[in-house]
Every structure is written in C-alpha cells, then in structure tokens.
Amino acid sequence: DAGVTQSPTHLIKTRGQHVTLRCSPISGHKSVSWYQQVLGQGPQFIFQYYEKEERGRGNFPDRFSARQFPNYSSELNVNALLLGDSALYLCASSLGHVETQYFGPGTRLLVL
Amino acid sequence: GENVEQHPSTLSVQEGDSAVIKCTYSDSASNYFPWYKQELGKRPQLIIDIRSNVGEKKDQRIAVTLNKTAKHFSLHITETQPEDSAVYFCAPSGGSYIPTFGRGTSLIVHP
Predict the structure, then answer these.
(1) Chain A residue with minimal CA distance to B38?
(2) Looking at residue B2, what is its pLDDT?
(3) Contact state of A98 with B44 under an 8 Å Cβ cutoff
C-alpha cells in the first residue's frame, strides 16, 4: 500500500511568484494536513482538511490557501512568494480528525 | 494557542544508556500525545503515541508517560543505539485540533 506522496520534490521560485504543491494521502485516509518546516525547527501547522472541509488553520497569512478534492488529495497554494517562504513543506494524512498522522517526503521550496 | 516546550534541546548519551525527553503543554483540552522521530533529510515518523485515558505506553525500547495534571509527557528510550540518533518532536493536540510541534530535541548516541 502506497504511503503519502507529494509533488514536486524540489522547487525553485523567485520572489513574487506563485506555487502549487500537491499531496496524495494514504488510501482510505480522509484528512490531510499541511506543515511548513524551516531548517532547525519543528513543523508549523498551516491547514487541515477533513472530508473536503477546512477544519483547522494555523497562523499563516492569506497568501497561503489550500483545498481538498473529492478523491481526498490536496493542493497547497502560496501567492506572492517571499524569501522567508523557503522551507520544507510537509503533507500528512490521517484516518480522521484527530488521529495518527503519516507524513509525506515533503517538497523543498527555495525562493530566490 | 497551545504553548509547547521540549527539554532538553540537545541530548548526548553513550550507546546503551537511557534517554528521556520531556514535553510540556498548556492546553488542558489536549487529548492526543504523539512523539515523532526525524532523521536528517527525512520525513517525521511517528514512533509512539498515547491518549489521555492512559498513563503509560511501552513498545520495546520506547515508552511514553503522561501526567495530565501537570500537563507534561515524556519519551523514554532505553538501551540506546547509534541509529536512535535523530531529532525528536512532541506534538500534543485535541483541543482545537491544531497540532503544535515542539522545537525538537537532537539526540546523539555515541558508539
């Protein structure tokens, strides 16, 4: 059974651009969460989606948005990229709203 | 929001010693208490978790203990091995469901 997958694995963008990151959860998992991890720190919660509805939002600006599709896959969008958005973006899936989370390999974003 | 602190930030032990990492949290509504291990360049992976109706859970060399009254839970690793070297994160959640990760503890096990 496949684990959580994310695409792309690496991405280089310039300031002001827009980026879309994608995540496919483990089969049967209905919840997807997004995290930002800056080097040397713990993952910071951005969003959680459960059954295609936003169930939680972390302390991130409105430039960050996400959605979940009928097949439970998810996209994270970031507009007007800043240098400080450079980080590892992790997606995690779980069966339900408060359950064990399984992380994907992440997308490493570099903003120049 | 939840305030989470991990101690120590770095822990250096000799192979075979025990290691203990403590996580304190502020939200009394938290009811799910996991520990994740992240090796360099890899994704975080759950190693053990506990729910609020249980005080202790053990899985081979790893155990987690929970003190809900004092609002802290701890990760215990016995007979440490070099492959235990990694960064460990706690991430309590349950109240508002916004999991808050600690800043991490870097465990170094010297052969």
Answers:
(1) A42
(2) 79
(3) no
| Helices H / strands E in chain A, number of each | 0, 11
Strand A10-13 to A107-111 pairing: parallel
CA-CA-CA-CA dihedral for A90, A93, A96, A99, to nearest 10: -70
Contact assignment for A103 to B45 by CB distance below 8 Å: yes
The encoded tokens of residue A41 equal 């720190």
CB B88 within 8 A of CB B43: no
Count of CB pairs separated by less than 8 Å, A with B:
51
Per-block average pLDDT, block size 10, for chain A (112 residues)? 90 97 95 94 92 90 96 97 97 82 95 96
The DSSP symbol for A25 reads P
Specify whether the CB–CB gap between A107 and A10 falls below 8 A.
yes
Q: What are B11's two structure tokens?
A: 């822990």
